[in-house]
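Dear support,

Our group has been running a series of protein-ligand predictions, and this particular one with zinc ion is the one our PI (initials K.S.) wants archived with full inputs and outputs. We had some confusion internally about which version of the output was final, so please treat the block below as the authoritative record. The input we submitted was:
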Amino acid sequence: MRFAKLFIVVFYLYSISCNSNSIKTRGSNITPIPNLPLYGSDTSSPFVKYVPDYNKKLQKKIFKLDDLISGYKDDKLNQKYLRAVARMYPKVVRYYHIGRTRNDRPIPALRITAPTGKMDEKVSILFDGAHHANELLSTEHCYDILYNLLSDYEKYRKYLRYVVIWIVPIVNPDGSNSFWHKSIGTGRKNGYTNSSVQNNIYYDGVDLNRNYPFRWNSGIPKASSADANSAYFRGLQPSSEPETKAMMKLAKIERFVASVSFHQYASCILYPYTIPDTKNPEPDYAKDLAIRLANLVTVYRENKKFIALKNIYAVDGVDQDYFYNKYGTLAYIIESTHHNVDYRYTRTILSGFKPLWERLIRESIIGKKIFLKIMDVNTKKAVSARVKIDEIQFFEKEKPRSNPKNGLFYWLVKERKEYHLKISKKGYYARYILYKALTSREPQVIYLNLKK
Ligand SMILES: [Zn+2]
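Confirmed final output from the archive:
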């Protein structure tokens, strides 16, 4: 969020969305929750001041699943809980460090999938939070998904047969440490101070969500800043920060078919491309799905709707546009509806988003799509081939390819019709096929022949 400008944005969203005096009602008996951060106007204390049982939680030896929804988490509690969950569900959950921060903290992640189904035909979906580590509710969105998947495992097992869910609740552990243990005026950025730039405690480090390489430093006014003291400091180079690199590396391996990066609290879903002057493919499936997803959210806040937008203000170097451009990931940013409210309200706020993330996972499984597994005919090994789809037009040099790890190529489409595909790879004979996009859960195997 952008501080002074946020007010204008909030007011704008309010004015365009508020065509009646009541809040959006889905179901019944919706009581609005005021958007008051737990710490009021105090911006100097560390957040831990508002969590009197922090040390007790950190030291607690016994773990139960409900601990996941017992309060906000800093970097240490996050590590503790994710490790505990992996120990509790060894067949379903694995704990990883996807990288290390500037200050050498691990960036923990969980990989969740059912032990059933064909592992080499599963596609991956990412949920992450706390690129901006002062946005505590963004982490809780990730925990809410984790908690639901595990506490209601029998229900979700049918999804987890087909997909792998990755969860990175705190992308920015250094920022989290700063927010919790130094001052709540910090934590948006990653705390990295380069000797060539002068930082102060409140504007420490790089805004990770301006540091991704796609259109980094685009020149668009106010999209990011070269000033190290700015809250939107993009870093000295594209993907200069280890946290950014860690996310890029994970995406390179997994080629996520969909992702959600949680932020707060403009109450909207941002679809790619969110950077101004960047043109979406035609037909624009990412936008189409975003509008459908937005309609599923219940907002527990007065005079507030949840809407789909390209952007709320100019940005560049953001994660979602990088993932979309590089891997075709349906990469969304979700701006939650509230700021860091009293924790007892969070269960209700998060419940309003459940139909959204469930639909996103479901759509990944049963949506109409082009789904291939591209292999070498002789070795039967995966091939990373370029797939050109005649019926989809690109404008930003996108070059969709199959994943070298498993040969999977996956592309959701709007229409159930036939698509003309050209599948090519240097050294192989190209193949031209007419592919009927269906809701099939299994890929069609395509063999490529090496040129003699
Ligand atoms: Zn944010």
